[in-house]
TrEMBL record:
Record's keyword annotation contains Nucleotide-binding: yes
Region spans: Disordered: 408-442
Domain ATP-grasp stretches: 116-310
UniProt source species: Oerskovia douganii
Keyword line: ATP-binding, Ligase, Nucleotide-binding
rRNA processing keyword on record: no
GO molecular function, one term: metal ion binding
Protein name, per record: ATP-grasp domain-containing protein
InterPro entries recorded: ATP-dep_AA_Ligase, ATP-grasp, ATP_grasp_subdomain_1
Alphabetized PROSITE patterns for the sequence: ATP_GRASP (PS50975)
Amino acid sequence: MAGPSEPVHVLSVGAWSPVVERLWAAGAETSLLCDAEMLDQHQGLSEHRSVTVTRAAGLEELVALAEGVHARAPLSHAVSFDDTSMVAAARIREELGLGGGDPSTVVGTVHDKDRYRSALTGTPAAVPHAVVGSVDDVLRFGRTHGWPIVVKPVSGSGSAGVTLGVGPDGAADALARATVRTHYTPTGRAMAEVQVRGRVITVDTLSHAGAHEVMSIGFELPGAAHPAMMIYGVPAPLTDTERRDVVGTVTSALARLGVTTGPAHTELLLTAEGTPVLIETQLRPGGDFPELTLAASGLDVYDAWARQLLGEDPLPRIREAAASAGTCAVIACGAPDVEADYLELRDLDEVRAHDDVAGVRVLRQPPYRSASARTRDDLSVTVMSTAPTAQLALRRAVRALGGARMRVTTHGGGGAAGPPPVGLEPRTSTAGGRPFKSEEAP
């Protein structure tokens, strides 16, 4: 493992991350090991010392390929920036004696939702759960613990395969959805757990030598303010007591799970009684939260992680940023929600021109055909705004998002006989679902 003055050669396993750019800026050497399906997302391929591309390689093959890279140019670290490659990176670290993260036993426990829940049994963060292999198992769990429940894959990334609010009539469909094998849900195993209601809070941390420092406490609002399908913000508007309880719950869970090194993104629910209940943890920064954290506090999450890989202690810099933070940042994510051919995004320059808009990003560039937006993969555009309070930043972001328009052709025959056209600007009529305004293509 490289020390502060030793050469750094980091093997990046899997998906792209801006952490790699930060490593290059610091003069570190990197190599890439990834599946062919991920190659297009990577930037600056020529900057790597070596690039190894695989196709659906198994764990042992990935370790062998990493050994080949190591033999040609000794590696100091192996890291992954996506959930599906983290166990492989951990195994590579173990086989080659590298730094960059925790052992595969820890990584595997965090990413296996059954093991994750079981590891927290007996703590305030515990949630009743059970692996379910049949509809009868789901029904038995619901009868025992009360309806509704959550059914989800045992090993999965994000919300893939997860069904909330499951009752007896939905047990079969929920189980079928949770057991579909995909790249993001590879095992085909499912589990049920008690459904808890509350505000969605996120906590991004960086762990160094077993100490856990909070980089941001954020919030999520799914479909809370049309035309936004999803809203993310930093910092979450919490009381001092709520913040203390949230941070204590998360850091205690990380310690219980054995996490000692690197970033973690933990999602939880804060109940009406003020009780934090963990949903899950990923060993990476969370989605848009690095961008929000940078806007709110000036802390570059990717740079902090890169500095740790370079041998520095990143925690003092994180504490300094937290002490000086005074801005709230919110990202509003928008998409039409009817089945349509999305042809053109319009008026984005006008959206960017808003004084209170800090950034606009197109997630999916038309033309494309899509059914009703259901997940983040269906979103079209995001707008970030900043303000002294979360409430004001939210209003600014949603108002600015409403200035974007989508030219579409709706399915079902088009014209007056088809479903109503949609866009990203609010209107008073709510025919056809969410209140959107658009221009229908001729």
